[in-house]
Amino acid sequence: MSASAWVADDLGTGYEQLTIPLGTDPDGEGTIEATLVRRTPPAKTEAAVIYVHGFSDYFFQTELADFFADRGFAFYALDLRKCGRSRREGQTGHFVSDLSLYDKELDQALAIVREETGGKPIVLSGHSTGGLVLSLWLDRLNKKPGGSAGAGVVGLILNSPWFDLQGKAWMRSVGTKAIAGVAKVKPTTPINLPATDAYGTSLHVSAHGEWDFNTSFKPLNGFPVTFGWLTAIRRGHAQLHKGLDVGVPSLVLRSSKTRFARTWSEAVDEADAVLDVKQIARWAGCLGNALTSLPIENARHDVFISKDVPRKAAFAAVDTWLRSTSLIPS
């Protein structure tokens, strides 16, 4: 794809976006596309990063991009189909019937970044659902000739990856089966879940937070969870739990505690208000290869947009890991 196709991104100076056409949606919602965002690369590029967001999210975390650029990484982020910049009118936000369908945009994004950076080593970074998506994709990639390393991938950084379904135990057994049954006939129908804006309002500058993001792309109360999408997630969880081999060293970061709530309180600012951190710790070992799994004291669900102290601790952990794995000089 020609570099002339890059256009200015709404993040402002230093950021551009590239549309990746994906053709007709296999899930029947028209023509789909993904969006690759890039930050102006450092003068001397040693490696590259591709970041993938989570559910009800998109890339806006410029501090994360700056962190990697300061260490010689060209930074790219991918808004998946029907997410963020890539969602089009009439499409169900974030809906996909199988997580492997994302392979199409992930493969293309990887090819673009490798071409633009002259084949520099690539580290993948995923948040929440994006962490699950990347882990499954890397496992499939690692099964191909040459494996993950042959594809240019050298590391995986996961920020509160969604490795299991939070909540009561019956939701992970009979509840999952019931949801899958409904998904066969009503895949895009929303599941009736209790409303919550605790996490969203903890982040946004219009409420209790310090981050300015597009609430059409990342609603404060999130997008509806549909039967078909959650069924795809649960199939992904089942694959992960059987054990993967991503083929590269991994760093898994999470908060030190979980605090589920429907409305904001100060406690929400110092915990994961979305996922069960014990589940993240439990299943991290399923990635295969070398693994570093660390809790970040008082971090939010997205550890990189936590309050100042845990945010700095999260970035320091990544810096240490990059040096320990020789992805940047010690």
UniProtKB/TrEMBL annotation:
Molecular function GO terms recorded: hydrolase activity
Q: Which InterPro entries match?
A: AB_hydrolase_fold, Hydrolase_4, MAG_DAG_Lipase
Task: Name the Pfam families on file.
Answer: Hydrolase_4
Keyword set for this entry? Answer: Hydrolase
Q: For the Serine aminopeptidase S33 domain, which residue ranges apply?
A: 44-257
**Superkingdom field:** Bacteria
PANTHER family, A to Z: PHOSPHOLIPASE-RELATED
UniProt-recorded name of the protein: Alpha-beta hydrolase superfamily lysophospholipase
- Source organism per entry reads Aeromicrobium panaciterrae
